[in-house]
Amino acid sequence: MNARIVTTLKAIRAAAKAALWRPALQALLATDRRVGLVLLYHDVGDHDGDARSELVPPISRTRLAGQLAHLGRHYRPVELANLQAAVAARRRGEPFPVSLTFDDDLGHHLSHAMPELARANAPGTFFLCGSFLTEPSDFWWQRLQRAVNYGVDVTALLGDGDIHRQGQAMEAMITEQREATAEALGELAPPVPVAEVLTAGGASQLSHVGFHTVRHHPLTGLDDSELERALTEGREGLGGVAGYSIDTIAYPHGSWDRRVVEAARESGFSIGVTCEREPVTPDSDPLALGRYEPPVRATIGEFAFDLARTLMKSPMS
After folding, report:
1. Do 137 and 162 form a contact (C-beta atoms < 8 A)?
2. Residues 164-176 pLDDT 10s
3. Residue 232 Ramachandran class (φ > 0 left, ψ -120 to 50 alpha, else beta)
4. C-alpha to C-alpha distances, 226 to 53, 223, 258, 271, nearest whole angstrom
5. Which residues contact 28 (CB under 8 A, 6 or more apart)?
6. pLDDT digit string, tens, across residues 181-216
7. DSSP 105
8. 10 Å Cβ neighbour count for 83?
9. Whole-model pTM?
């Protein structure tokens, strides 16, 4: 299929979503359906990223501001801790509650995301690893991105293929191998820009902080002792920075299963969020709440339609 046809089809789909989101939402509002949404964001940049060439493409401040404005007009933004209660209390005709979350240790949380949240009067939860508890640092996917952007050959470390295939190779590694490869990438990649690194001082100014584990390893690949360590290491220190005990967690890479959920419950977490695109109900396990991540270049019409469509989904059992 040539590029012109692909572009035309995308434009048709975008136009259809722009035309359909309002009647879809109105139909939902007329029901007594008790559901809500958790939205997932990562980096908020000065410009929109490109999912074709970036592992974690940023959404621009301008686009985020537009999405927050839409949520403020048509939904009810609430604190994550209050989401399920708000869902249970929703009645016919009332807006659906939504919660906003941001993952990873990123300087732009403070400089870009927080001002937009404040302007929209919307609460947000920032799931942090706490890399700044020893010395502010970055993570392997950031190092890989900078290496590829600057033309550094990383095939000896991660094999052939595009950056997404190489990222998958990193995720598939055992813990020790991934950490060693991350160190090697740190030596190959250009230094991380200071503005992109989150410090302890910056983290203390965020609206609400949750845990994302210090090492950001996929939790399902850890044995029981490693999993226990991942759920505890750095958590108390992060709470010291935030000024309160941390009892919410976002599972790194969206990697979770029932064993991980039960381990999080036993570790004293009260809320856990995944990357499963599904609505939250009063009966959802609070340690396995789904999240919807908007595409970084979605139009408001596409964003609005996808929100309504996600509200219509049946939650996973």
Report:
1. no
2. 999 999 999 999 9
3. alpha
4. 32, 5, 16, 21
5. 96, 308, 311, 312
6. 999 999 999 999 988 899 999 999 999 999 999 999
7. -
8. 23
9. 0.95
Looking up tokens 């596409």 gives: 302
Cα separation, 105 vs 56, in Å, equals 13
Contact by Cβ (8 Å): 79, 124 = no
> Are the beta carbons of 280 and 40 closer than 8 angstroms?
no
Backbone angles phi, psi at 97, to 5 degrees: -75, 145
Who contacts 252 (Cβ-Cβ below 8 Å, separation ≥6)? 212, 213, 216, 217, 218, 219
Q: For residue range 114-158, list pLDDT tens digits in order.
A: 999 999 999 999 999 998 998 778 999 999 999 999 999 999 999
Give the SS3 label for residue 154: coil
Structure token digits, residue 315 = 């939650």
* DSSP states along 25-58: HHHHHTS----BEEEEE--EESS---TTT-SSPP
CA distance 232 to 264: 10
**Rg value, the chain, Cα:** 20
Give the model's pLDDT for residue 134.
85
Closest CA to 264 of 127, 126, 86: 127
Q: Among 211, 182, 186, which Cα is nearest to 104's?
A: 211
Beta-carbon-side half-sphere exposure of residue 121 (alpha carbons within 13 Å): 4
Nearest 5°: the CA angle 157, 160, 163 is 85
Name the one residue in this structure whose structure tokens are 């890399």.
Answer: 131
